[in-house]
Amino acid sequence: MEILGIGTDIVECPRIGKMIEQYGELFLRRVYTEREVRFCQSRKHAIEHFAGRWAAKEAILKALGAASIRGLSWTDVEIRTGNDGQPQVRVRGAAREVAIERGIGDILVSLSHCRTYATAHAIALAGRPGRLATAEPDPA
Predict the structure, then answer these.
(1) Buried b / exposed e across 101-133, counting CB within 10 Å, b at 16+?
(2) For the 4'-phosphopantetheinyl transferase domain, which residue ranges apply (predicted)?
(3) Domains of the chain: total
(4) Cα-atom radius of gyration of the chain, to the nearest Å?
(5) Is there a binding annotation on residue 9?
(6) pTM to 2 decimals?
(7) Any alpha helices (H) in the chain, and if so which ranges?
(8) 9: domain range?
(9) Residue 58 labeled ligand binder
């Protein structure tokens, strides 16, 4: 198992809450996929879950080495919860192209949050793009 990149991020949950409060749907649609919005809004502490996904997306972009690549959209990276409860990463668009170009086949991610902070760590692993690049578009 060859590690091609690592990334980490921490964000204040109230900061994400303020962004949602100030910009509402515009912010949510720009940063999160419909699936992520539905998931977070279904949780008791939705802001903490939104913040966790924000931190995960930042960590993943760092692990991809793509944090400053033009054309990347926040929604090119999606965090899903697997049947086992573990977070899974899906990429599409420019993020998928970067992953393929750099030989990244999977990204492991770990998230954690409390009322104040959310943090995430990501590890990009070498290999052929498997489930990493199988994100289908959200339903219309």
Answers:
(1) eeebbbbbbebebeeebbbbbbbbbeeeeeebb
(2) 5-105
(3) 1
(4) 14
(5) yes
(6) 0.90
(7) 13-31, 34-41, 46-64, 93-101
(8) 3-133
(9) yes
